[in-house]
Write a structure and sequence with these properties.
Distance between the termini: 19 Å
Strand content: under 5%
Radius of gyration: 17 Å
Order of helices and strands: HHHHHEHEHHH
Number of strands: 2
Mean pLDDT: 92
Length: 202
């Protein structure tokens, strides 16, 4: 099982252009400071999981935004395009790690790569954290201005139903709902593609 090869230059150009559309110099500063870490970040550890490999986080963020825009139009929610861009680019930013350490490191074990398709290990030097909490920390650290809807959408982008987020279940703003629905759709679509590639037909 091999890692997917992505056109990293094209992915980054699209990602960076979207960030520029927000006209947020603070968001651009974050992206410029962390550009290599963001581009090299895998969304997951194994090729059997969605968006594994270099450029995985960027590809996921772009797919999330595309789906979010389509749902926004289909549902007639009227959510601001700038808010969607900002939220989709920031929601999983915590996957890169904290300020000093990457969350994943390249797996050195050839056995794990060959037998399990595992190309990334947890970085033991990186403190454990909730991804969305770290995403919000990055926004705070770079002084990125988020309105309530954007902040809530990032916080709830992991799961509406977990214990921590149940408090918000009856007060979900449209942006938060869009992000959550889009995330489910994107990850399911990617998982279906992976299954089709790695499932042996009978």
């Amino acid at each position: 099982m091999n890692l997917k090869e992505r056109d990293l230059e094209k992915l980054w150009k699209n990602y960076e252009n979207l960030a520029k559309m927000t006209k947020s110099k603070e968001l651009l500063e974050l992206i410029n400071d962390q550009d290599q870490r963001i581009l090299e970040c895998s969304y997951s550890q194994r090729v059997s999981e969605p968006f594994c490999g270099l450029g995985g986080l960027v590809e996921y963020s772009l797919e999330l935004l595309k789906t979010c825009k389509n749902l926004n139009e289909a549902l007639g929610y009227g959510v601001s395009p700038v808010s969607m861009i900002k939220t989709c680019l920031l929601a999983d930013m915590g996957r890169i790690g904290d300020k000093n350490y990457s969350r994943f490191v390249v797996c050195e074990s050839e056995w794990h790569k060959e037998k399990l398709g595992q190309y990334f290990d947890w970085n033991e030097s990186c403190p454990k954290f909730n991804i969305q909490d770290m995403s919000l920390w990055f926004a705070q650290h770079y002084n990125i201005k988020l309105d309530w809807n954007e902040w809530q959408a990032i916080l709830l982008s992991k799961d509406f139903t977990n214990e921590e987020n149940k408090f918000y279940s009856s007060h979900r703003e449209r942006l938060a709902l869009l992000i959550n629905l889009s995330k489910q759709a994107v990850l399911k679509n990617e998982s279906d593609k992976i299954r089709d590639v790695y499932t042996t037909p009978f």
